[in-house]
Design goal:
Blueprint: H1 7-36, H2 42-65, H3 72-78, H4 83-118, H5 123-130, H6 133-148, E1 156-158, E2 166-168, H7 183-230
Helix pairs in contact: 1-2, 2-4, 4-6, 4-7
Pfam family, one: 7TM_GPCR_Srv
Transmembrane segments: 12-32, 44-69, 89-111, 132-153, 193-212
Keywords: Membrane, Transmembrane, Transmembrane helix
Amino acid sequence: VFCIDSNSDMHGHFTSIFAYVLVLTQLIRINIAGRKKKIRSAFFTLQIAQGGFDLLTQLVYFISVFRWVPPLNKLWWSLREYYIPEMHIYLYVHIYLFLYLRVVGVVCLSLQRCIAICFTRTKLNKLLDSSPSLLILIGEISLALLFSSPVFFCDGYFQDEESLTTKMTSFSLTVLEVKEDSSIDNVWGNTNTAAIIIISAMVISTACYLSILKHVKQFRKAGENFHIEMR
């Protein structure tokens, strides 16, 4: 259950949204200007997509926080008999889907930077930069959906109209086998699945940036040797 304790939290929330919108606007302008000059890069597509995912995450969080405030609580409670509103909007979309969208986005950005810097003249880099933006976006979303698909096997309900606390009641298909009809095991299994994916993403991203640092160091050393020879 999420709650807002003070007005400062609200101010911070809206400030971050405003900052995201400004950054996204500039990225889109740069991307459009680059395309007019026939400069294509998957980096801008991934950056804009990541910003969009972050904004959607904050929007869903905002709705989730105020789910018990009229008239939202009436709306949520009236939809309690339906599978999608009671489980997927709150648990699936808010926690898992957007978590994995952001994780996949970070990994994709790390891989793109590594390929662009360490393998600049390769066919892989040219293929990535020439790929349609829509194809890249579909790929990111598909991976996030794949990672978060186990939550489709969960079921839940709202405990009461006042708090709208979600309780899980049935089997969850996760990396770790869990017991049926155990909400604790469902949460534990999904949490472990998320932890494995996040740790794997950290390892991949770290490896990418270590490769970039190594490449930059070698390039700098080669440049210093070139200046020495010129002298």
